[in-house]
């Protein structure tokens, strides 16, 4: 059964030292005094500015701060854009895949406290009518601005590479059924993962592309040649590259090779140290380049919450030492990752430049979602979505649309 949120400490108790959840504010961000965040290393699209400044006026980043702006000294820290998660099934003990609206909001808030200011809610394989009804609820949250849209991961995936999906509910990608889910999302369908080699796969990819929905190749048993045909039909994303697809072979290069080598494709990576060996991550960055990588969490309910038993769709999951596996079959069942951990690991373990990590965790997913005019980088006129990191790359502050989700607290000395 799913975990009881009251059974363990909430994610609040695991916030990094120096960070604290913002208290409820009676006034909108637009009514607040302007802010000037000063002294941090600021990562801009053009590179890192040591001792830089970010001006916030209302809900937006401003070109300059007025003279009466409140100054917060963040010397010794980093300021990076808010994280954007393309692929996320839940967190904080709550599910995006089958929970109520309140559950989804609790999961969204958990990930916000870890720096993810923009999140797409991912569904898992289920009965088609249930998925359509659930998409209607998620669409209302998207309309309210709480989530950035809906990702359907299943049911149109391969039983050979099903991972943590119920095989009895899998089906071939019938374009009419694909259209049913698109319509149920009321304009908020952002991505669908397909095994494009299945009957109806290529026609479904074309249908998704025609409706402005990202077609993602994943949970697939496709060959190299079949994957190339899917890309030519309009597929532009690799769902958690390397996972739930055939490995690279010297005579059968498979989907991984096709997805890495085609410049039209962005590859998702789960950088939690469980799903990928560091060498596999470096291979992806080397061949795709930083501009074609998107870090995702593929998180399930346990993210930011703790070990225990959970449900992922209809399947029972055991989380032990932060690793989620199906109770029956022992397959990895999503992750307990939050994007702040993916960021820190990328810099401190994988040795990636901070600028490349920012591209993979903010700019690239924002571009894929069609939101680059609003989020994904620190530029005047965009939403004031940002994350403050200390020198060890731990989160000490999170701002979303000009309001602190996590106040820097002791990390920043307020100078009035």
TrEMBL record:
Name the active site residues: 298
This protein's UniProt keywords: Carbohydrate metabolism, Hydrolase, Metal-binding
InterPro entries with a match to the protein in the record? Amidohydro-rel (IPR006680), GlcNAc_6-P_deAcase (IPR003764), Metal-dep_hydrolase_composite (IPR011059), Metal_Hydrolase (IPR032466)
Q: What is its EC number?
A: 3.5.1.25
Point out the coiled-coil segments of this chain.
none
Can you quote the record's cofactor note?
A: Binds 1 divalent metal cation per subunit.
Ranges for domain Amidohydrolase-related come to 78-405
* Top-rank taxon: Bacteria
List this protein's GO terms for biological process: N-acetylglucosamine catabolic process
Q: Which cofactor does it need?
A: a divalent metal cation
Pathways involved? Amino-sugar metabolism; N-acetylneuraminate degradation; D-fructose 6-phosphate from N-acetylneuraminate: step 4/5
Single GO molecular-function term? metal ion binding
Positions contributing to Zn(2+) binding: 153, 219, 240
Annotated region (Disordered) at 1-31
Classification via PANTHER family: N-ACETYLGLUCOSAMINE-6-PHOSPHATE DEACETYLASE (PTHR11113)
Q: Which family does it belong to?
A: Belongs to the metallo-dependent hydrolases superfamily. NagA family.
Q: What is this protein called?
A: N-acetylglucosamine-6-phosphate deacetylase
């Amino acid at each position: 059964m799913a975990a009881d949120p009251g059974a363990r400490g909430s994610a609040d108790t695991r916030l990094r030292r120096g960070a604290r959840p913002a208290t409820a504010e009676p006034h909108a961000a637009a009514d607040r005094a302007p802010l000037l965040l000063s002294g941090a290393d600021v990562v801009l699209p053009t590179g890192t500015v040591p001792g830089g400044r970010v001006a916030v006026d209302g809900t937006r980043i401003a070109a300059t701060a007025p003279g009466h702006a409140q100054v917060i000294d963040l010397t010794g820290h980093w300021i990076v854009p808010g994280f954007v998660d393309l692929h996320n099934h839940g967190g904080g003990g709550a599910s995006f895949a089958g929970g109520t609206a309140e559950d989804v909001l609790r999961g969204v808030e958990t990930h916000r406290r870890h720096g993810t200011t923009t999140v797409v809610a991912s569904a898992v394989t289920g009965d088609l009518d249930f998925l359509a009804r659930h998409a209607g609820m998620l669409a209302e949250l998207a309309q309210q601005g709480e989530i950035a849209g809906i990702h359907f991961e299943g049911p149109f995936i391969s039983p050979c590479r099903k991972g943590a999906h119920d095989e009895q509910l899998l089906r071939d990608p019938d374009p009419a059924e694909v259209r049913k889910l698109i319509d149920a999302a009321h304009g908020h369908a952002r991505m669908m993962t397909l095994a494009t080699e299945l009957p109806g796969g290529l026609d479904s990819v074309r249908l998704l592309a025609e409706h402005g929905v990202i077609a993602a190749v994943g949970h697939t048993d496709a060959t190299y040649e079949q994957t190339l045909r899917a890309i030519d039909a309009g597929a532009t994303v690799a769902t958690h590259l390397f996972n739930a697809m055939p490995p690279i072979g010297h005579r059968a290069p498979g989907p991984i090779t096709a997805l890495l080598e085609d410049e039209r494709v962005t590859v998702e990576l789960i950088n939690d140290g469980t799903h990928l060996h560091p060498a596999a991550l470096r291979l992806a960055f080397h061949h795709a380049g930083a501009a074609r990588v998107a870090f995702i969490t593929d998180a399930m309910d346990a993210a930011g919450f703790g070990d225990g038993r959970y449900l992922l769709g209809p399947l029972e999951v055991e989380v032990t030492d932060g690793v989620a596996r199906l109770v029956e079959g022992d397959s990895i069942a999503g992750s307990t990752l939050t994007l702040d951990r993916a960021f820190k690991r990328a810099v401190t373990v994988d040795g990636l430049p901070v600028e490349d990590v920012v591209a993979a965790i903010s700019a690239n997913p924002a571009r894929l979602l069609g939101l680059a005019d609003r989020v994904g980088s620190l530029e005047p006129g965009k939403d004031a979505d940002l994350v403050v990191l200390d020198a060890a790359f731990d989160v000490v502050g999170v701002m979303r649309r000009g309001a602190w989700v996590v106040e820097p607290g002791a990390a920043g000395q307020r100078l009035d």
